[in-house]
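Milestone 3.1: sequence recovery, worked example.
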């Protein structure tokens, strides 16, 4: 049985347009998206407060997010709750609130990564810190039945083995993988499709990120990730091969488009819809 793919818009697509969360949801709906992946933050972020940034404050009532989305016929399928797993004092309260918010709005996935390792921290200390973070967070995820999905984006997750090592720090069905097609390609250490094959049984969410030829030529092998990509289908990612690997998985998988502009979001939706229709 093939996976059922759900195409969503990661709200980063309106960041370069300086749009608010409310405007971003409306634009996503107008483009034809039915699902989104909002970014959330703690506190009161200045640009968001003056409607120049799309991130949603977790100080707000979570049902306000649902109310805004319901008004545009949009569903929240996942939350971008990226938190520094190696910094428990920041990651634990942030991810706890993101999981609670996700549950309140009906989303079942919260995405994160290891982020940046401090210079003073050894590899062993880094994994001990991540174990502590994930041990605490797993209990929250289990109570709320929300998956915490770790993506390739940092120095440890740039390989499939490194990603799985973190996922397996705490043995739990609620800690899984958010596969980022662009980050895994840019890392340039291993073949990204072979990497996906190695982790596919843990993949419950995908950041559908394409990488332009120009960015590939200038950055591949020099970085471990990038905030956003180009329009899906206009870069170097082999989408047919990605879907060939994911197709046998017997579960719904979200393809959350992570691109940099409104026009790219539209092109990505058209491309992915066309690709899925052709393969049906």
């Amino acid at each position: 049985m093939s996976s059922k793919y759900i195409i969503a818009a990661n709200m980063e697509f309106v960041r370069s347009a300086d749009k608010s969360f409310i405007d971003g949801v409306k634009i996503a709906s107008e483009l034809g998206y039915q699902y989104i992946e909002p970014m959330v933050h703690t506190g009161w972020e200045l640009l968001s407060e003056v409607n120049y940034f799309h991130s949603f404050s977790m100080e707000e009532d979570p049902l306000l997010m649902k109310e805004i989305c319901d008004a545009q016929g949009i569903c929240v399928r996942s939350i971008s709750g990226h938190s520094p797993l190696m910094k428990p004092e920041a990651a634990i309260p942030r991810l706890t609130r993101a999981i609670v918010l996700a549950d309140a709005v009906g989303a079942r996935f919260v995405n994160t990564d290891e982020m940046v390792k401090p210079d003073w921290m050894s590899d062993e200390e880094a994994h001990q810190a991540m174990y502590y973070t994930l041990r605490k967070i797993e209990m929250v995820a289990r109570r709320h039945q929300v998956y915490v999905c770790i993506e390739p984006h940092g120095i440890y997750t740039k390989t499939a083995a490194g990603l799985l090592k973190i996922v397996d720090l705490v043995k739990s069905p609620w800690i899984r993988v958010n596969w980022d097609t662009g980050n895994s390609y840019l890392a340039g250490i291993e073949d990204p499709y072979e990497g996906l094959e190695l982790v596919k049984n843990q993949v419950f969410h995908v950041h559908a990120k394409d990488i332009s030829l120009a960015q590939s030529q200038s950055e591949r092998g020099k970085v471990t990730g990038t905030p956003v990509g180009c329009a899906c289908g206009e870069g170097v990612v082999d989408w047919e091969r990605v879907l060939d690997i994911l197709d046998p998985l017997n579960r719904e998988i979200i393809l959350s488009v992570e691109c940099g502009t409104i026009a790219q979001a539209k092109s990505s939706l058209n491309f992915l819809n066309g690709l899925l229709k052709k393969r049906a």
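The longest strand covers residues 4-10. The radius of gyration is 17 Å.
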